[in-house]
Amino acid sequence: MDKNALTPKYIIVLGTTYSGSGAIFDYFSKRGDLYNPLLGEEYELPQITNGLLALEAACNKAFDPATCEYAISQFEKITNRLINTWSKQTMGKNFPDRLKLFKEEFEKFTKEVTATDFPMKLNWRHYIQTPLQKIINIAKRKVGFIDIIPKTRILVSEDKFVFSAQKLHDRIFLPESAGCPILLNQAGSGWNALESTKYFSSSKVVIITRDPRDQFLEIKQFKKGNSVRGFVNWYKEMQARLKKIEDPKILKISFENFVNEYENSVEILCKHMTLPDNISSNYQPNLSKKNIGKFSQLLSKSEIDIIETELSDYIF
Questions:
Q1: How far apart are CA 316 and CA 311, in angstroms?
Q2: What is the pTM of this model?
Q3: How confident is the model at residue 4 (pLDDT cuts 50, 70, 90)?
Q4: What is the largest distance, in Å, between two alpha-carbon atoms of the chain?
Q5: Domain with CATH 3.40.50.300 in the chain
Q6: Per-residue pLDDT tens over the stretch 69-94
Q7: Does the structure show a pLDDT above 80 at 147?
Q8: What angle do CA 65, 51, 172 make, to 5 degrees?
């Protein structure tokens, strides 16, 4: 480990859908020297539908006054779901129970990234109304209800947005960290790691990949992804995007290498994260070995042959 290098504020573990990232997260979380605020719960806000990535796009390449207001309103909806307690209706994560300032800081963040609020009628609201909503609105106007002019908020520039997102996360996570690096699970997209993790100041990232045969097996079992041909194209696209990621803050490691070459992998991980490698973890790699090679008993011969032929470069 380079003694002159700085330990990052954030250590982010990313997977690519049942790629075995939980093993690496377990190693970090069971060291005892990292702050694990969500206790393994996936953070996901950067890459979740209508999350930070989508909101930032409306600041820049997708910018338009109508696009901005729609993106802000959808972002507010998704953060409210994270704030709520989980239920069949909300799918919430009740983050405020684990992060004291979560709710108020997100309200503050939304104000920070809003450049102006100039209420006016815009056509996009009419376009997304259901037929029933249109009928109700027409009826209201006929009986004399006065239309409330809705918000029309415009977002700040991309640079200001990213800076505000970094400040948001620092305000949420740093106060309780006691100076320890903050460990986050899936706080970004493994397919788009650079863009989705720039919302954290001073971060290091590890992306975990996996033998496509075992990955297809688990996606098939738990996500009902039964098309082996579809999976092959999906996996190729993932690898093409991962190949483009070359950045010193990002380390790519395979689940199989981590488990089978544990001591060497820990040394590589710690060097990358600028963590001491002499702190033991209660993680047990032998328990993870049972998840390697399960495909041979549970996939059909034709499925295995297709994956081994089409994805031979990625077989472990």
A1: 11
A2: 0.90
A3: very low
A4: 75
A5: 1-37+180-316
A6: 999 999 999 888 887 755 444 445 66
A7: no
A8: 115
Q: How far apart are the first and last CA of the chain?
A: 28
Each residue of 241-263: pLDDT tens digit?
999 999 999 999 999 999 999 99
pLDDT higher than threshold 80 for residue 116? yes
Residue pointed to by tokens 């820049």: 60
Quickly name the fold that domain 1-37+180-316 has: Rossmann fold (3.40.50)
Kindly report each contact of residues 4-8 with a partner whose C-beta sits within 8 Å and lies 24 or more positions away, as own/partner: 5/274, 6/202, 6/274, 7/181, 7/273, 7/274, 7/275, 8/181, 8/202, 8/203, 8/204, 8/249, 8/273, 8/274
pLDDT tens string 49-69: 999 999 999 999 999 988 999
- pLDDT at position 5: 66
